[in-house]
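Quick question about two entries, pasted in order.
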Amino acid sequence: MLGNFQKTIQSSIQIKGVGLHSGAQVNLNLKPAEGNTGILFKRTDVDTEKSIVEANYKNVSSPILCTKIKNSHGISISTIEHLMAAFYGEGIDNVLVELDAPEVPIMDGSSFDFVESIRSVGTEEQKFKRKFIKVINKIEIKEGPKYISIEPLEKDLIIDFEIVYKNPLIRTRKHQFKLSKGDLTSIYNSRTFCLYEDIDQIMSMGLAKGGSLENAIVVQENKILNDSGLRHRHEFVDHKILDCLGDLMLSGHRIFGHIKTSQGGHQLTNTLLRKFFSDSSNWQYENFDGKQKEQDSKDSVYSSPAAVNA
């Protein structure tokens, strides 16, 4: 279980890779940040005065096939969900993410490389206490056959995820993630996937320019085209849980609650967060000592940016 105090990384991390949808080569630099900074993205290839984008659910735009955030100047960063999931699981609260392209590199299609890089430098505990979001009221969203809800749960996060595919190999699969169990290995290692017959349509949308069997599982009828097959039996649904964790990190704080979803995805999770936080009676701050004091204002779920160790 995550501790009571905020953390950042001990030193800078350099990562190189290709953008899944843009196909662009990306240089990614993770830098330590001071307490209460949160997760900030900075585009180094644009005007510096307009380059900062907060990792905030309110900044999500066009969450189709990935999570994309954009600031008021129109500067955007796409495919942030796997990196955000690594921050969630590894307990990183404050970090500056610099990149010289409009998309986080896809790496192998999972969070594995990001997690290994964070672990290689270690984390640093900071003097500020974490705030957790405690769910007070159940909120649910229904969009045809798609469904997602969040309800109260004491000092833990559970995600019950169901995927439903007509494909004979994927079919209907369910799995539950419980944060307090501590082992996120199977979640971290689960890669993004797609159906072979969908590739032409995805590419016609100008997406997946950097996609390959090196960074995605491709399923054609009842077989997997990747030579190595699946990494584990729950990889399909566990990747959806990975995406969900990354998108939940956009709340600005980790959530204590029980999420149930069928056929969910980036857009549905973002819709849930917007509805949930639209009414302050749905939640309150707390830490492991109990409810936060009243001076911890709920005016903004996401902390205001503080100084960053550039």
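Here is the second entry:
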Amino acid sequence: MDIHALLFAEGGSLSFKNLSKTLECDHQALLEGLDVLSQKLQGSGLAVVRSDTEAALVVAAQARETVMKKATEETERDIGDAGLEVLAIILYEGPSTRAEIDYIRGVNSVSTIRTLLTRGLVERSGNPEDGREYLYKPTTDVLAYLGAGRREDLPGYDTIGRELAAFKAAQKDQGTPLEIADAQKDYL
């Protein structure tokens, strides 16, 4: 059970050494546990793949076609206006948290960001200022496709940057959405 959870949580391969250490078992017990897990997963759409030194939880061969079809559908779909908005914010604003993107757009952007991540248009990294959230930034492939060696080379970068800064300053002068809601309660 623990082997299954560890492989699932990793989302990739783990070395036998790492698995044995984490599970506090010897190499032979680990291999036996992997055999048991492989048998339990038969017919489930998942499988355990092993090399000489590591193991991974993967999509089983019989389910691969269905999963690939779904992934292809996702990547062939147009990213739409929402995707363009989020991508523009990330391109012109720079590395941004989801909360910052949502604040500028005024709507929840979770699914849009997920689509952009899946397509390889943006990448996610840890936020050094707050470990509970991620920063989203454009991939180098997007910049290359747009013909920009860096963000500052994007068309209208200075103008759009000033407009974004003015928008954020105006929003800040009005207060946060919670401050505005609290102020409105006084008038009701």
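Reply: The two ends are 56 Å apart (CA to CA). Confidence is low (pLDDT under 50) at residues 177-188. Hope that helps.
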